[in-house]
Amino acid sequence: MKELVESIAKALVDYPEDVQVREEETNGSITVTLSVHTDDMGKVIGKQGRIAKSIRSVVYAAGANQQKRVYLEIG
Amino acid sequence: MKNVTVSGKTIEEAVDAGLDKLEVEKENVNIKVIEEPQKGFLGLIGNRPAIVELTLKPDPCQEALNFLRDTIDKMGVEVSIEKEEVKDGFVFQITGEQIGILIGKRGQTLDSLQYLVNLVANRYANEYIRITLDAEGYRERRKQALEQLAERIRNKVLRMKKEVRLEPMSAQERKVIHTTLQKDGDVKTFSSGEEPNRRIVVAPK
C-alpha cells in the first residue's frame, strides 16, 4: 500500500524527493500517512479535496482487493 | 536517444542539426545553450562554434500511460492496457479478469483513476489533452443504462406532473441524461447543488 501511495504522490508533485509515506497496520486495517513538501500540498489535495478523494478511492480499491481496510491521511 | 549535444556555426544551425539527429520538431525539445559562438580575431584565430544541448520533452500521453500501468500494478491487479487515439484525445482500454476492482461502485474507482491520469498527462502537455479510461466497454454500458434511466424518469414526470430529482452524478453522466431528454422536449432538465453532489432535476414543461 505504501508503494502505491508513494508512486501516485510522486507523479503529481513538484518535489518528489520530499514525498514521505508511513504505513501502520493494526488488526486488519492499514493507516497510510502521506506527507509532501509544503508547496505541494495543493497538488495532492486539489480543489475541494478532489485529488485527495481520487487518491483515496484508488487506495481503498487496492485495499479491498486484499480484504483490508485502508485509511489514508494527508498532512 | 533522449538528448544530444551538437555544435554549429550559429545557435540556429546547431539546433537544426540536433533536430535532424533526433528526428523531431522544435516544439518537442528543450534547448540549452552550452556555449555561445565566438568570432575570433579578424575571423581568423579563435573561432568557436555554438554548442547546444537538446533534450526530448516527455510525451504527455506516454507519461500518463506509464503512470496508469504503474498504479494498477501496485494495486495488485492484472490487466492489459491499450492506447487508442480518438478525435478529442486518447482512450486507454483496460481489459482483464479482475476489472471489477478497477471500475468500483458506479465507476467511482475508474473515474478516480481517470482524473489522476489526466492530471499527470497535463503536467507534461502544452495544450490540454483529454484521456478517457474505459474498462471492458464499461463507458458504453453505463451510457445505455443512463439513457434507459432517463426514459423511465421522463415517463414518471409526465405521469405525475411533478419534478423528480436524481442521484448525484458526474458531469459526463449528467450530460448523457440532459442530451437524452432534450431530444423529445416534453420535459425540462437542469442541474442543482454543488459538486460533487450536483444532481439532475427533471421537471414537467
From TrEMBL, chain A:
<dbReference type="InterPro" id="IPR009019">
    <property type="entry name" value="KH_sf_prok-type"/>
</dbReference>
<keyword id="KW-0963">Cytoplasm</keyword>
<dbReference type="Pfam" id="PF13083">
    <property type="entry name" value="KH_KhpA-B"/>
</dbReference>
<keyword id="KW-0133">Cell shape</keyword>
<dbReference type="GO" id="GO:0008360">
    <property type="term" value="P:regulation of cell shape"/>
</dbReference>
<keyword id="KW-0143">Chaperone</keyword>
<comment type="similarity">
    <text>Belongs to the KhpA RNA-binding protein family.</text>
</comment>
<comment type="function">
    <text>A probable RNA chaperone. Forms a complex with KhpB which binds to cellular RNA and controls its expression. Plays a role in peptidoglycan (PG) homeostasis and cell length regulation.</text>
</comment>
<keyword id="KW-0961">Cell wall biogenesis/degradation</keyword>
<dbReference type="InterPro" id="IPR015946">
    <property type="entry name" value="KH_dom-like_a/b"/>
</dbReference>
<protein>
    <recommendedName>
        <fullName>RNA-binding protein KhpA</fullName>
    </recommendedName>
</protein>
<dbReference type="GO" id="GO:0009252">
    <property type="term" value="P:peptidoglycan biosynthetic process"/>
</dbReference>
<dbReference type="InterPro" id="IPR020627">
    <property type="entry name" value="KhpA"/>
</dbReference>
<keyword id="KW-0694">RNA-binding</keyword>
<dbReference type="GO" id="GO:0003723">
    <property type="term" value="F:RNA binding"/>
</dbReference>
<dbReference type="GO" id="GO:0005737">
    <property type="term" value="C:cytoplasm"/>
</dbReference>
<dbReference type="GO" id="GO:0071555">
    <property type="term" value="P:cell wall organization"/>
</dbReference>
<comment type="subunit">
    <text>Forms a complex with KhpB.</text>
</comment>
TrEMBL record, chain B:
<dbReference type="GO" id="GO:0071555">
    <property type="term" value="P:cell wall organization"/>
</dbReference>
<keyword id="KW-0133">Cell shape</keyword>
<dbReference type="InterPro" id="IPR001374">
    <property type="entry name" value="R3H_dom"/>
</dbReference>
<protein>
    <recommendedName>
        <fullName>RNA-binding protein KhpB</fullName>
    </recommendedName>
</protein>
<dbReference type="Pfam" id="PF14804">
    <property type="entry name" value="Jag_N"/>
</dbReference>
<dbReference type="InterPro" id="IPR038008">
    <property type="entry name" value="Jag_KH"/>
</dbReference>
<dbReference type="InterPro" id="IPR038247">
    <property type="entry name" value="Jag_N_dom_sf"/>
</dbReference>
<dbReference type="Pfam" id="PF13083">
    <property type="entry name" value="KH_KhpA-B"/>
</dbReference>
<feature type="domain" description="R3H">
    <location>
        <begin position="140"/>
        <end position="205"/>
    </location>
</feature>
<dbReference type="InterPro" id="IPR036867">
    <property type="entry name" value="R3H_dom_sf"/>
</dbReference>
<dbReference type="Pfam" id="PF01424">
    <property type="entry name" value="R3H"/>
</dbReference>
<dbReference type="GO" id="GO:0008360">
    <property type="term" value="P:regulation of cell shape"/>
</dbReference>
<dbReference type="InterPro" id="IPR039247">
    <property type="entry name" value="KhpB"/>
</dbReference>
<dbReference type="InterPro" id="IPR034079">
    <property type="entry name" value="R3H_KhpB"/>
</dbReference>
<feature type="region of interest" description="Jag_N domain">
    <location>
        <begin position="5"/>
        <end position="55"/>
    </location>
</feature>
<keyword id="KW-0963">Cytoplasm</keyword>
<comment type="function">
    <text>A probable RNA chaperone. Forms a complex with KhpA which binds to cellular RNA and controls its expression. Plays a role in peptidoglycan (PG) homeostasis and cell length regulation.</text>
</comment>
<dbReference type="GO" id="GO:0003723">
    <property type="term" value="F:RNA binding"/>
</dbReference>
<keyword id="KW-0143">Chaperone</keyword>
<dbReference type="GO" id="GO:0005737">
    <property type="term" value="C:cytoplasm"/>
</dbReference>
<dbReference type="InterPro" id="IPR032782">
    <property type="entry name" value="KhpB_N"/>
</dbReference>
<keyword id="KW-0961">Cell wall biogenesis/degradation</keyword>
